[in-house]
Amino acid sequence: MPTPRKARRFGGDAAQAATFLKQNNYANVSILPEGIDRILYSEDRSTSCFSSAYVSDVPYGIINPVELAKFLEANKDIVFLDVRTADEFANKHKNSWQNIGHLDKAVNIPAADLGSQWNRIEADKAKPVIVYGFSSNTAVYESAAALVKNGFQHVLVLQGGLFSVGWTAANIKGCSSLASLRVDIPAENQ
């Protein structure tokens, strides 16, 4: 049975593919640890081999927090779509460490409800829509694909989600402005 597309992007098949190639007399075989996902997290993909070597097989873009900081400087009229559950969005998750607020002015439509709540963001089809969750998970990618399928023109997945925005703001030079983007963070998680 073939490996799902997402597992391939994260490098799940790399070791098996390398073994197969070596067994079939390919000499220069290497793997990319952590797969394409590691490149997607890279601070500056423009200087890497990323742009010439990676061809996306999904209809939406992927933006990491470093790129988000730059993107926000140039784009003021965007929509943040938080696809976590209503409890997560409201900081009522059973795991207190997952209660980390949300992005300022984000619209919360849980991934499971997206199909029945299009009307809440229907007027924003021409705007950039940045889809995020707590981290990168299947629901975020599926929601982005559904938006594109339903006519949204500029859909981006926030790689690493809300957690990565907080980490990047605190740890990457030049990205501290991202800290003000996160709001409603409980005191114990600030």
Tell me about this structure.
- The protein has helices spanning 5-9, 14-23, 35-41, 50-53, 65-74, 86-89, 138-149, 161-171, and strands at residues 61-63, 79-82, 102-103, 107-108, 128-132, 154-158, 182-183.
- With 190 residues, the protein is α/β, with parallel strands linked by helices.
- The strands form two sheets. A five-stranded parallel beta sheet has the order 1-6-5-2-4. A two-stranded antiparallel ribbon has the order 3-7.
- Mean pLDDT is 83; it is low at 1-10.
Can you tell me the residue ranges where pLDDT is under 50 for at least 5 consecutive residues?
1-10
Radius of gyration: 18 Å
Order of secondary-structure elements: HHHHEHEHEEEHEHE
Overall spatial form: globular
Task: Return the average pLDDT rounded to an integer.
Answer: 83
Measured distance between first and last alpha carbons: 44 Å
Strand order of the largest sheet: 1-6-5-2-4
Percent helix among the residues?
25-40%
Structural class, from helix and strand content? alpha/beta
The major β-sheet equals: 5 strands, parallel
Helical segment tally?
8
Quote the beta fraction: 5-15%
Number of beta-strand segments: 7
